[in-house]
Amino acid sequence: MIDPTIPSPDDAALWYADRLYLADQRILPERAEFLSYDQAADVAEAIHAMVVRGAPAIGVAAAYGVVLAARAAYAAAGANWKDAIEADLQRLAASRPTAVNLFWAIRRMRTLIERLDRADPTPALLNEAQAIHEADRAANRRLGDLGAALITEPTDIITHCNAGAIATGGYGTALGVVRSAFAAGKIRRVFADETRPWMQGARLTAWELMHDGIPVTLQADGAAASLMAAGTVGWVIVGSDRIAANGDVANKIGTYGLAVMARYHGIKVMVAAPTSTVDMDVATGADIPIEERDAEELLSCGGRRLAPMGCAARNPVFDVTPAALVDAIVTERGVVLEPTPDKMRVLMA
Ligand code: MRU
After folding, report:
1. Among residues 241, 248, 279, 327, which one is catalytic?
2. Ligand 1 atom 10: residue of nearest CA
3. Could you read off the pLDDT of 37-81 as tens digits, one per residue?
4. C-alpha separations of 344 from 62, 182, 301, 303 in Å
5. Cα(233)–Cα(148) distance, rounded to whole angstroms?
6. Residue 304 φ then ψ, to 5°
């Protein structure tokens, strides 16, 4: 049994004693605390508020949220639980718009819901949520090794945001590649962009890599170009929130700029993501909904107001990198080099 009060960088979500525990990623690494949930609506709010973040971890949390929804629906409506669960499923789906893993996980839970009878659905749905969680962890191990195999010689790499263990079911996507590549002696140093405004790079990527003894240097987002010009960086390695059918990649705001700069400097771009992040229903990146968050997140930092009162601000939190700027999409099913619609179709067939 894992004691949810003991923090570990490997666990964004835990199911323990009939409740969901989420590591509060808003306050890491200053404080390591798990918050506990027994209502789906609260899980939806936790996703919206960034208690849990990172596309695969959002999907895992939502799957457990469906378990909580089903338990409450059965307690309230007995055999009619399928009608009673609907509002909670919609709340979960409305929590954040860009990471497709959220909708993928809810759809997978819905598929099981359709097959269940009128008896208590909780054990079967819990089993499915745990399977989603475990499969994500296994996928990351596999894609981590596949991504590492693309790195031919020891190099520095740049990563953006946090696509680590805490953003997934475990091990990480971009940081999964980093973990596997570092173990194989292929990474000299990771340069982690701090990732304004939520600072996932400074708070989470730096913490995870230091925990694992992987050399990491934090840099301001604007420092990436001059580092690339210095010539030690071989790869930019990032995760993704949604990959379109043509290989366009939505990821944390700033990824597109990194990819443009990488191409100019002859540096390769690797996108590491499980196939649950691929959305074959959106033809191109232009169809991916990009979340805009409260401008206040940008106007202030660490609770201190930065910009003058009345200052306008825009806060899109993801951008789309065109497939033409991506050298490799690495999934647990295999690697797509220089993605095209045909190659993506073969991957997902
Ligand atoms: O806003 P966030 O912190 O949820 O954004 C996370 C990212 O952009 C990650 O790079 C992406 O979800 C991949 S996580 C394996």
Report:
1. 241
2. 239
3. 999 999 999 999 999 999 999 999 999 999 999 999 999 999 999
4. 26, 28, 40, 43
5. 15
6. -110, 130
Ligand 1 centre to CA of 287 (Å) is: 18
- Is residue 241 a contact partner of residue 99, using CB atoms and an 8 Å limit? yes
What is the CA(115)–ligand 1 centre distance, in A? 32
Q: Which residue has the higher pLDDT, 185 or 4?
A: 185
The fold adopted by the segment(s) 142-348 is Rossmann fold (3.40.50)
Torsions phi, psi of 36, nearest 5?
Answer: -110, 145
pLDDT at 4 over 60: no
Category of 257 on φ-ψ map: left (φ > 0), alpha (ψ -120 to 50) or beta: alpha
Ligand 1: residue whose CA is nearest its atom 15: 163
Please tell me the distance between residue 127's alpha carbon and the centre of ligand 1 in angstroms: 26
Catalytic residue flag (residue 145): no
List the domain boundaries for the chain.
Answer: 2-137, 142-348
Q: Collapsing DSSP states into helix, strand and coil, what is residue 224?
A: helix
Laid out side by side, the sheet with 249-252 consists of: 278-279, 242-244, 249-252, 318-321
**Gap between the Cα atoms of 58 and 317, Å rounded:** 15
Residue 250 CA to residue 267 CA, distance in Å, equals 19
Task: Give the residue whose CA is nearest to atom 8 of ligand 1.
Answer: 252
Closest ligand 1 atom to Cα of 251: 8
Tokens 């660490």 label which residue? Answer: 302
CATH of domain 2-137: 1.20.120.420
* Closest by Cα among 129, 147, 161 to 274: 147
Residues flanking ligand 1, CB < 6 Å: 53-56, 99, 161, 163, 167-168, 173, 198, 200, 238-241, 251-252, 317
Complete edge-to-edge strand list for the sheet that includes strand 19-23: 13-16, 19-23, 34-37
Query: Can you tell me which atom of ligand 1 is nearest the CA of 318?
Result: 8
